[in-house]
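Support request, please re-run this one:
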Amino acid sequence: MSYNDDLHSLSHTKWNCKYHVVFAPKYRRKSFYDARRIEIGQILRQLCEWKGINILEAEVCVDHIHMLIEIPPKYSVSGIMGYLKGKSSQMIFERWANARFKYRNRSFWCRGYYVDTVGKNTKKIQEYIRNQLVEDKEIDQLAMDFEDPFAGFKVEKTKVKK
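Re-run finished. Output below.
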C-alpha cells in the first residue's frame, strides 16, 4: 500500500487526516455490556456515515471507546467529537429511557476526550485498538481485590470518667 492509496480528495483538496480518539461515559461507568455495547457501536457507526467519516478501527471497551477515524478537512476534530457525543447521547437516552436517572442533564459522555494524529503509525494504532479488550482483561486479572480486615468489626467507644 503506497502513500497515494491513503489519499482522499474533495473538489480542490487531497487529504489524509487520521485521528485516534478515546472517550468515556460520565463517571467512567461500566455501561458497555453485551447488547448495549453492540447498539452503541451501531449508533456511532451510523453517525459517522451521516458525516462522511470513515472508521478504520474501533473498539467499545467496558468503560471507554477507542476509534481510529478519518475526518475530512472541512470538519474540525472538536466539532466532530461534539457531534458524535451529543447526538449519540440523545440516541442512547431515546433507546434506554431509564439511563437518564444515572446521567444527569442528559449528558451520557464525559466532558473531555483524547485525540492524537496518526501520521505514519496507522498499522500500529489499529493493532493497539484491536488488542485493547484483551489488554484490559489481562490487567483486570492481575489486579487483586483486598478486603478490609476491619470492615466487619465495630469499635465501641468507652467513656472516660473524670
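DSSP finds four helices and six strands in the chain. The longest strand covers residues 54-60.
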